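Recap from last week: sequence in, structure out.
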Amino acid sequence: MQAAVGDRLHVHGKVVGQAEHAGEIVEVHGAEGAPPYLVRFDDGHTRLVFPGPDAVVEHLAHSGSPRSRR
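Predicted C-alpha cells:
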C-alpha cells in the first residue's frame, strides 16, 4: 500500500453493519509512501494507522512526492 499526504484512507467495517471510517492522510511515516500514516479522521480524531486488509487508499490529484510533511 502506498499513499501521499492529502490522500484519503477508508477503513471498512469489520462486521456487518459497522460503519466505515475515513479520513485525510496528514503524514506519511514510511519510505516511498508506505505505512504507517497519521490520519485525521472525519470524526475529528487523529491517529497513527498501520492499515490492514480492510483499508483502501483513495489517491487524490496532487503534486509532489509521497513524503511526510513534518
